[in-house]
Amino acid sequence: MREVITICVGQCGLQVGLDFWTALAKESSVSVDNGTKLDNSAPEPPMPFFRFDGERTYVPRAILFDLEPGVLSGNKVASSFFNPENVVDGHFFDETLEGETKAAGAGNNWAQGYTKAPHVRNKREESVMDIVQREKDLAEDLDGFIVMHSVAGGTGSGMGSWLIEQLRASYPKHTIQTVSVLPNESDVVTQPYNTTLALRRLIEHADATLVIDNQRIQQLAARRHDEGPRDPKEVHKIANEIITRVMLGWTSPVRFPSTQCASLTELVSTLVVSPRLNLLAPAYAPLNAGRKDNVVTLMKEFWGPHGHLMPNSQLALPGGESSSSDRAVSAVTVLQNCRQTYDEIRMAVRASGPSFAPWTVPMWSVITPTLPAMAKRDGKMTAVTLTCSTGMAGVLDSVRKAFDQMWRRPKGGARGEELITTMDAEELKDIPFMGTYKEALGDAECLEQFRDAYLAVQAAAEEYRQAAFNSYMEDLGAM
Ligand SMILES: Nc1nc2c(ncn2[C@@H]2O[C@H](COP(=O)(O)OP(=O)(O)OP(=O)(O)O)[C@@H](O)[C@H]2O)c(=O)[nH]1
Ligand SMILES: [Mg+2]
């Protein structure tokens, strides 16, 4: 058995995670009220995600962290379905106060989340990594971790960064996959800083990151409902529904292993051909729930204007349709409830596949897991595709540009790269919104953190850009 532990951090991570687990419980015929089986004739729930505890209860292999009680307090599913020792809502141990206290969030500040994380304790005084290790000890043969978070605020971004570093240091051989939500342009003012600082950890330590673009999802949600911008809570609800569908599809080969694929590690290694190209673009079809589909229409939808959860301008569209030099490096599709033959699937893949980078074997892998009846939902065919696309350079460039807008002296002059690579720590006082970052980290470390993160994001963008060309293979060989 290859088990997977999900770890949700911060408001966004928790809300996405709670929706995912609620849907997973439903598909597995497990009650979110108490973890018992809803239907005794149903097969055993997928044990990579659940563990059997005692006589009647299935417990999610999941851990929920926040630095404030907001999402967790009063949430029925959080309190009834999960192991209470794995649900930590902002209790932390502050040595200077000599006792347990409540952390008041990380205030949209990466540095607050990053520096508070090592002090977090549950009611049994277990640290974050004690909790992870306890959960790991309950697995027979741990496959890896799925971390869910936003990179834009303080907790998911900062505590999430710290957690990913710790996971990588403690479990170097286990797969770390993240579901990382990128912000809307109009979200919090410090988001370009937080996003840059967190992206560095994802680039350096995650095996694979599903990049979820809130802005793009908002556009798709508005289109689906034929309306303009909506209340953020409503947008988040729709976004989380889409992310849940992506994650249910993506994890179905792990939950229902077959000879095609039997673990998260296998899935990730099919897609991530170089550890430096680990940021992946997801797509889901059909987004219009009422439609009848076959494999051809679903595959076409991915590469049409509305299937992808990443902007089309940054995607490797099929042959002649590609507006730019973007190319796919690898792609994996999971088809659920597919009743078509292998030949029909191969033909659809051949007809609608993306443009691949010239140095790769143009391989679009398709997995068709066999689902038990209760996981088939309404029996409609759905498809999730993850693509390693050189267009990710465009996403990283947008993050860098937003950062450059912020990182400047009030009186003009150098900004962005030129400023961050030449300035001294004492000049940080001139940079907008630096106060709380400096307070948490100290001047010298603060500048080092920002500079290293900025350069890491810039280097990753360049890596993706170069991966569109044949010379990339030679560059890889030269490393
Ligand atoms: N898709 C989606 N995005 C969300 C959700 N909740 C918040 N966000 C986005 O997440 C970002 C803010 O991060 P949060 O997760 O709220 O912040 P946090 O990690 O709790 O950090 P602090 O509250 O600052 O300590 C913004 O870009 C929000 O738009 C959600 O449920 N779904
Ligand atoms: Mg929060």
From TrEMBL:
Q: What GO terms in the biological process aspect are recorded for it?
A: microtubule-based process
Q: What is this protein called?
A: Tubulin gamma chain
Q: Would the keyword GTP-binding turn up in this protein's UniProt record? A: yes
Q: Which UniProt keywords apply?
A: GTP-binding, Microtubule, Nucleotide-binding
Q: What are the coiled-coil residue ranges?
A: none
By its UniProt entry, which InterPro entries does this protein fall under?
Epsilon_tubulin, Tub_FtsZ_C, Tubulin, Tubulin/FtsZ_GTPase_sf, Tubulin_CS, Tubulin_FtsZ_GTPase
Recorded family membership: Belongs to the tubulin family.
GO MF entries: GTP binding
All copies of domain Tubulin/FtsZ GTPase, residue ranges: 49-258
Q: Which domain of life is it from?
A: Eukaryota
- Tell me the SUPFAM superfamilies matching this sequence: Tubulin C-terminal domain-like, Tubulin nucleotide-binding domain-like
| Annotated GO CC locations | microtubule
